[in-house]
Amino acid sequence: MERKNQSVPIFYMMGLPNRPELQPLFFTIFLVIYIAALMGNTVISTLIAINSRLHTPMYFFLINLSILDIFCTTAAIPKFLQVIQSKEKTISFHGCIAQMCLFSGVLSTETILLTVMAYDRYIAICHPLHYATIMSRKTCILLAVAVWVLGFSNSMVQTSLIPRLKFCQRNIIHHFFCEIPAVLKVACSDTYVNNIAIIIADVLLGMVCFLLTVVSYTYIISTILKLRSAEKKKKAFSTCASHITVVTLFYGGVIYTYVRPAFNNVLEADKVISAFYVIASPVLNPIIYSLRNKEVINALKKLLGINS
């Protein structure tokens, strides 16, 4: 009802310095990064889909991660490229809501997915004889569906609270895109309920998923250290190294941005951290999984050999 009594606000995106001479450079950099993220994640997904040796639970979840990375960059970068080229540098209220919904949905889903991937590695290393039974095709599909449903359900709850806020007619967002913490900072009304909702999501999704991931890797590392063969230890660690690296990169940025929404207000730091997990992480994930994974490298060589 409040929304009907006020004009629709306009958001001005001021994520980059107002230096017209640098706009072409920024546009080129972000465009190249976006294309690299799309190509990298598409290649990973294609390799897994066409190579029967990669039709395992670990790679099934990796396809889901690649899709999320594509959504992540697509939620933020195309609109930002448009903003760079625009003189007004605006985004509509409804466009901002849609961007927040998609982006927060991707973050929530990826948080849960990384936990499921850690559980998959736990079963594979700590209970190898029961791996095929526990991580059956049906189980993997059910887990994937649950991950997406829970992730985007949280996003719908978070973004549904935004329209209840009052905004001024001109709202300057010092960010690259409409992210919930950045939008809350320009609200003209009390954001207490929104901050409470973020904290609840942090606890139920962020903290629980993080603790479950830590517990999984505690058992994994303990099991690996008990192995007598150095070769088996190396092989076991290699199957987890990529996922550990991705988890570290992801949680580093997300915890900084979402766990402390009401405690400080460092705009430049926010932009740097957000740019890392929006731009760098989707580009790095395919590289991490391909460079540290012989099966993926072999599948890529096979694909290139067929096309050559």
From TrEMBL:
InterPro entries: GPCR_Rhodpsn, GPCR_Rhodpsn_7TM, Olfact_rcpt, Olfactory_GPCR. It holds the Pfam family 7tm_4. Keywords: Cell membrane, G-protein coupled receptor, Membrane, Olfaction, Receptor, Sensory transduction, Transducer, Transmembrane, Transmembrane helix. SUPFAM superfamilies: Family A G protein-coupled receptor-like (SSF81321). It is a multi-pass membrane protein. One of its GO terms (cellular component) is plasma membrane. Signal peptide: none annotated. One of its GO terms (molecular function) is olfactory receptor activity. The chain crosses the membrane at residues 25-50, 57-77, 97-119, 140-157, 196-220, 240-259, 271-291. It comes from the Eukaryota. Belongs to the G-protein coupled receptor 1 family. This is Olfactory receptor. The gene is LOC115461263.
